[in-house]
Amino acid sequence: MSLPQFKLMRPRTLDEAVSRLAKHAGGGARGTRVVAGGTDLIPSMQQKLFEPEYVLDVRNIAELKGIRETENGVEIGALTTLTTIEQSVLLRRRYPVLTEAAATVASPLLRNMGTIGGNICLDTRCLWYNQSLTWRKGCGFCIKKDGDLCHVAPGGTKCWAAFSGDTPPALLCLKAEIEIASASGLRRVPLHEFYTGLGDKYRRLLPDEIVTRVFLPASSADYRGVYRKLRVRGSIDYPLAGVAVVMKRSNGHVDDARIGITAVNPSPVLVKGAGELLVGRVIDEMLAEAVGDLAAKTAKPLTTSALTPEYRREMIRVFTKRAVLAAAQVPAQRLIEFG
Ligand SMILES: Cc1cc2nc3c(=O)[nH]c(=O)nc-3n(C[C@H](O)[C@H](O)[C@H](O)COP(=O)(O)OP(=O)(O)OC[C@H]3O[C@@H](n4cnc5c(N)ncnc54)[C@H](O)[C@@H]3O)c2cc1C
Ligand code: SF4
Description:
alpha+beta, five-stranded antiparallel β-sheet, four-stranded antiparallel β-sheet, 14 helices, 12 strands, 33% helix, 20% strand, binds flavin-adenine dinucleotide, binds iron/sulfur cluster
């Protein structure tokens, strides 16, 4: 599959990038797309899901790369690769749920190219959408691209394509914020406000804006973190269900806990009520199971992805239970008993 024709812009500074975006965001009928690692955008362009008039390649902007400890926590440039995140000693020590989630993305080669900014901005996925133009023409276009109906929920007007990034549920658990830049300045938003809950217009990002940094607050550091993921091919695959858990305990009791899920809704989401259920309690199998039930209720998988919605919801329940037990460091042989 060939790439559609586009004009390439390669700014070397953020100022240059945002002024180019301001000029070309309208970009005629086809607009402009930012490309970072290109591991998701390029295949999507080959499938003619995006046919931008301009592509803004931001890879040469050095100021958006790297991990920095500040007095308020840790700052990660949007162009930092997933491999850098996975291998960061600082992140592994202070925010282990993020390194664990990053390590599960795709394959080593794709993690060498793929960035944290691209993972946060990742397009939502659906079996009726991530297909070639010929396939989509044959089977019928849908709301997300070129059509007006949904094959997954016929009769409805909403797109349910699933958000399938691995690091965002971990980032939500860490109460991450992101910085967004445009020619009119910088704005900072909590990550949970970035996603809309819609499969088509899934993120709150204007055409002239670019994600520049991720902030991890000091208050979320040093939590024990676990990420569990369901996928078809263990060596390289998007999540079909994913669960991130962070937990702080003292004297065996939970002081604070958060749980985020991915790949089963149009946005990554925090499981409401999970913290309240866990705080002050000693983790045991029954409690972990109750949290698993809550996570399964939060998951709304549909037939957007491989494996049935019923199985993916069940795996959210099972993985949440396992992740909660692992975060509480329940001995491994007991985990085997629980399945
Ligand atoms: C075979 C295969 C398997 C994969 N498996 C996984 C997986 O298991 N888990 C997973 O999470 N992902 C997976 N991916 C998707 C992808 O590799 C990762 O999500 C990666 O992190 C995307 O980052 P990128 O820099 O390559 O993004 P790009 O492809 O460059 O961009 C992705 C999207 O984000 C936008 N974008 C990128 N950076 C910015 C920015 N700074 N500001 C504004 N918009 C931006 C782009 O315009 C585009 O819409 C897989 C991809 C492939 C091809
Ligand atoms: S959920 Fe419906 S509208 Fe969205 S991509 Fe899938 S088929 Fe299209």
